[in-house]
Amino acid sequence: MTAPTHTARAHSFNTAAAQYAANRPSYPPALLDAVEELTGRSLCGARVADIGAGTGIATGLLRARGSDVIAVEPGSGMAAEFRRTHPDVPLVRGDGNRLPLASASVDLLTYAQSWHWTDPARSIPEALRVLRPGGAIALWWNTNPGDVPWIAEAGARQAAHFGLDTEADEKPGTYADVADPEGRLGLTRRTLRWSRRVPLDTHLANLGSHSAFLVDSEERRTAYFAEERAHLLKVFPDGIVEETYDVDLSVARTGA
After folding, report:
1. Which of 23, 69, 114, 142 has the most CB atoms at less than 10 Å from its CB?
2. Cα–Cα dist 220/232, whole Å
3. How many angstroms separate the Cα of 36 from the Cα of each of 40, 136, 138?
4. Domain housing 49
5. Tens digit of pLDDT for each residue in 73-95?
């Protein structure tokens, strides 16, 4: 089976935007507290651009903190879902490699689950271009902690399904480790653990909204989730799954 291209995986979310919005996890309040601490400024009143905003999960949290937010999203399906749920938030179409923003126009750029879809050779200069003096960049991902036994076992099953020799591609640190390959940003990194309890159907729909499954064949996907449901009911016989996440946060501050 030919591996799907990076572009195909990136575009796959547009067909599953509603599923993504309904089932993906959010982020804990401690994350935005850490962003404020590491950037050295309050989010309230800050001019923020949320890049790769998707359906607006992070955008909504930033706005609730009092930020003046503009969202940037390349995908038509994700943008449509964003506009449905956040009709009052400005949204422009574009991506992190070529930001549709004026130079020196924002205090903070956020990339929630989205920096790995960019090319750092292009996205880093773009980020530095649009930031005001003293601005900051914050990148973060919900990652799957391997020290939680059921998550490690599920990750091994997923790796086997996709024929991987390594752990699942969302192991903690994978994305952040390649965020700034040339060390131009001088990222400061922090990890925050949190969890949520959701019905098994929500957990499986969340998993199914990841690009690796969205580009998989319907037959393989259906078989995998039937088997995964059986595995997880042995761990969570009441049908309520406790999902545990490590939010991998990286922040860089620019000079004044």
Report:
1. 69
2. 18
3. 6, 10, 10
4. 6-146+169-197+245-253
5. 999 999 999 999 999 999 999 99
